[in-house]
Design brief:
eight-stranded mixed sheet, two-stranded antiparallel sheet, alpha+beta, 3 helices, rod-shaped, 16% helix
Length: 228
């Protein structure tokens, strides 16, 4: 499940250059290049494209992504409860024939083994360690800042997901897919959306720009995102 903060404004800008917002994240690292490709695909779904140079771009798109420090939470889990049923001893009369052909009846004990059956579920609290993965995309005017302030923000989309995994690489295309439907839309509200790992939208993000960190060095043609 992905939590998504929708953008606060609607941009007219279409061309962009991507920059990292976090100085600790190198723009030359494979992680950044991969994250940038996922975001380029999401932007392409909205008709936006990468400008040939920073000077000709309408906007600068800033990326910030990572995994927050682990934290512990208590969640209620269902634990199956099993029980032994059946079993015991029963007595039956069975015919017995002697060597002379005479038949008589004898009572014998028949043992029935017990069987295990699901009796129900118990709700129990359980402490788990969770990691919040996040992807934040912010578009700003491609103009110099004024009086130390950054250029005006055009729109911003934030996504995050929280579970016991700290595999950021696995979740980057999933979170990028969650941003695709809200890039450039005016909402300002927070939404919770369900995004499946194996879905058309996520596959589109993974494959959209050639699935390579080095793809898309120049301007790209907008891609058509599948309807889901």
């Amino acid at each position: 499940m992905v939590k998504r903060d929708a953008p606060s404004g609607t941009p007219d800008a279409q061309s962009y250059k991507i920059r990292t917002k976090n100085p600790a994240q190198s723009e030359e690292s494979l992680r950044h290049l991969e994250a940038a490709e996922f975001v380029k695909t999401a932007l392409s779904a909205k008709g936006m494209y990468e400008a040939p140079s920073a000077e000709t771009a309408d906007m600068i798109v800033e990326l910030d992504y990572g995994v927050d420090a682990p934290r512990t939470r208590v969640q209620v889990v269902s634990v199956p409860r099993y029980g032994q049923v059946g079993g015991g001893v029963s007595y039956e009369r069975v015919p017995v024939t002697d060597p002379r052909g005479n038949t008589s009846y004898r009572t014998v004990a028949v043992y029935q083994p017990p069987r295990t059956e699901l009796m129900g579920f118990d709700e129990r609290p359980q402490r788990v360690t969770v990691y919040e993965k996040y992807l934040r995309i912010t578009a700003r005017e491609n103009k110099p800042g004024v009086e130390g302030r950054p250029p005006a923000e055009l729109w911003s989309v934030q996504t995050s997901t929280e579970d016991e995994s700290k595999d950021l690489r696995k979740y980057l295309p999933i979170m990028a897919s969650a941003t695709a439907d809200n890039i450039g839309k005016e909402s300002g509200s927070q939404k919770v959306v369900k995004v499946k790992d194996q879905s058309q939208g996520v596959d589109f993000i993974r494959k959209g720009m050639g699935n390579s960190p080095t793809a898309g060095a120049g301007a790209q043609t907008p891609l058509e995102r599948p309807k889901i």
